[in-house]
Amino acid sequence: MKKVNSFLQICFALLYSIKTTDAQSLSIFSNTYIPEVRITIPKDSLDVLLSELYSDYYFKAAVNFNYPNGGDRMDSVGLRLRGNSSRKSAKKSFKISFNEFIKGAEYQGVKKLNFNAQVNDPSLIREKLFYDCWKQFGLPERRTSFVKLFVNNEYYGLYTCLEEIDKNWLQKNFNDNNGNLYKCTYPADLVSKGTDPNIYKTIMSSATTGGRAYELQTNKTADNYTDLAQLIALINKSSDNQFVKEINAVLNVKHLLKAYALEVMCGHWDDYGYNKNNYFLYHDSTTLKFNFVSYDADNTFGIDWVGVDWALRDHRKWYNTKSSEKRPLISKLLAVAEFNQLYVKYLDTLANQILLPSRIFPYIDSLHLFITPAAELDLYRTYDYQYTIKNFHDALNIAIDGHTPYGIKPFIEKRRQTYFLHVGSQPVANDLQIECYPNPCHDFIYLKCDQLIKSYILYNGQGQEMKSAISHSSKVKISLDGLHDGIYFIKAINHLNEIQVIKMIKK
Asked: What is the spatial distance between Cα 112 and Cα 116, in angstroms, rounded to a whole number?
């Protein structure tokens, strides 16, 4: 297990900035502060943008990025709405494009940014939590952060900022961006429609914004779907022996099973597995393998819209099991003993490491504490589902309404229990049992354990490392001199590299 604050660490380089006061300290993807994003757009343009809900037309705007130590301004930036059903929400989600009006323009290495409103989620952290787990699980990182969004000086609220899945992202994660990138939306089930590649161009998405269900995002001029058609043919038309023999050569199976296991454990039902929706397929031009990437993870960690208890759903039967519904890629992979064992291994890692309550709950608490000041000022939160600030604070631990039947923490606990019940594995203990006293504390705190404590790391409520030490003792005294009052977390590690995270209050 990596350090707790590995969730919070973003390695970034400012590749493009204007009017920067201190370039090395500024990042839109910071997890140590919440930037302000101030969009300025002519009123008549804004009126049209907000009224033409399903248009993807970009309007020209200016954007100021304000950080603790400076800021940037980008002019002639494209602005439009994003999402599908979320476009009807009072609190809109937005996409900005730096190269829409200025060819080749970028900001901090990205051409586009997505600002998601999280109207479905009273906690405001589910989507970020999913992508943090995605990164922690060793999958290709999609950077996320929180921002305070203003439009024409009106505070629209706290948003999740996500980098775009595009050629820049492909180059960074796969060291290649020449292959075909397909954005796959409902009903992209990977069921064979025939051998003609052009058939897959005619399957239309049911999204209100329209377009193809398998929409080519790169190499649009060539518009060649041969690679996708060949993959679908192998999945659907090959014998079991041929499938096993050939699938590893054309698909990054390990990454797909990892992603699927994460979706299943985190309750991401609006995915390929259940809803044949919301994923990318990238055909790497150097390895000639397809790579699978999830997206649109706001309906996770217990949120439901279709009347299913996702915490209790069998991990082996996550995909839609109706006779009329087929998910050939998943069903065929899991029918192979080797792949099924690998899938269970990934589930076990998630249940006993990534989503282990003693490890992830302190991080969830730190996220909540981190965004609280910005969330409390978010008046748009109340417009769609009348979520109150009390709902925001309660959402970690209790159900809020009909489509949010679980708090995040109870969902994780129940999901782990369901895994252990259905799959037959056993939960690991929550690592060490360390006595921590006095707590609340003032000048110092003691850690006491029956085993040797090899080391500890002390974090503040935002996940920043404050101090650390190597001890090799069963009793450790930690001085708190110089630390402000507040909530802290101590990560203690014993000589067997077992871990316990302890919440501490300094008064």
From this structure: 13
Is the separation of the CB atoms in 54 and 47 below 8 Å?
Answer: no
Are residues 275 and 192 part of one domain? yes
> What pLDDT score does 23 carry?
41
Domain enclosing residue 199, as ranges: 174-344
Q: 7 falls in which pLDDT band (50, 70, 90)?
A: very low
Among the three residues 163, 189, 211, which one is the final residue of a domain in this structure? 163
The tens digit of pLDDT for each residue in 267-279 reads 999 999 999 999 9
- The predicted pLDDT at position 19 comes to 33
5 with 11: CB under 8 angstroms? no
| Helix ranges restricted to H, 311-424 | 328-334, 337-349, 357-376, 381-385, 389-394, 408-423
Does the structure show a pLDDT above 70 at 129? Answer: yes
3-state class of 96 per DSSP?
strand
Centroid of chain to Cα 459: 23
DSSP 266: H
Cα→Cα distances 481→445, 470, 492, Å: 11, 18, 19
Contact predicate 4/456, CB 8 Å: no
Within 10 angstroms of residue 139's Cβ, the number of other Cβ atoms is 19
Number of separate domains in the chain = 4
Token output for 236: 């659907």
CA atoms of 374 and 377, how far apart (whole Å): 6
**Is 415 within 8 Å of 262 (Cβ atoms)?**
no
Location of structure tokens 């056993």: 426
Q: Are residues 282 and 335 in the same domain?
A: yes
Token duo for residue 159: 């948003």
User: What is the CA angle 59-100-46, rounded to 5?
Assistant: 10
Question: Could you tell me the maximum CA-CA distance found in the chain, to the nearest angstrom?
Answer: 73
Question: What is the Cα–Cα distance from 315 to 94, expressed in whole angstroms?
Answer: 34
State how far the Cα of 148 lies from the Cα of 67, in Å rounded to an integer: 11
Neighbour tally for 255: CB within 10 Å: 18
* 262 and 293 Cβ atoms separated by less than 8 Å: no
Contacts with 481 (C-beta within 8 Å, 6 or more apart), sequence order? 443
Question: d(Cα 57, Cα 101) in Å, to the nearest integer?
Answer: 12
Tell me the one-letter amino acid at 408: I
For residues 323 and 365, membership in a common domain is answered with: no
